[in-house]
Write a structure and sequence with these properties.
This protein is mainly α and 131 residues long. The chain is 77% helix and 0% strand. The chain is built from seven helices and no strands. Helix 4 runs parallel beside helix 6. The chain is globular and about 40 Å long.
């Protein structure tokens, strides 16, 4: 359960219901909507459901695959599953897509973990002018 109490949890559940309704209404944005649902589930402490969504998005491919891999890696690092997290990040790199946004997210994740040299390498590929 979320640490913010019942009111915040109620708001997150309401947000999830809205997002779930949007899945049929906006099929072209399905991946992005599912990622938003996964983030809300994570904030609620429903990690199994969030992980299931990220793994589904990875399996489906498409534009959201790499974002889902980064979000999954962040969770895995938090669980001490560093090897699996690094495998998810390696898959982003191996995919060969050079999305500046995705690569910047990876760099930020690594930077937060104190892995400055590795973060810098990802920032350089992302083309971030600030790093």
């Amino acid at each position: 359960m979320a640490i913010w109490g019942g009111l915040e949890a109620d708001k997150l559940r309401a947000r999830i219901r809205i997002l779930e309704a949007e899945l049929d209404e906006y099929p072209d944005e399905r991946g992005e909507i599912l990622r938003d649902i996964a983030v809300a589930r994570r904030r609620l402490g429903e990690m199994d459901r969030a992980v299931d969504i990220w793994r589904y998005l990875v399996a489906q491919g498409g534009d959201e695959r790499d974002f889902a891999r980064v979000e999954l890696a962040e969770y895995l690092f938090g669980q001490g599953q560093d090897e699996d997290a690094r495998a998810a990040l390696a898959a982003v790199k191996a995919a060969g897509r050079r999305s500046g946004a995705v690569w910047t997210l990876v760099a930020e994740l690594l930077e937060e973990r104190g892995e400055q040299a590795e973060a810098l390498a990802w920032y350089r590929v992302a083309g971030s002018p600030n790093h």
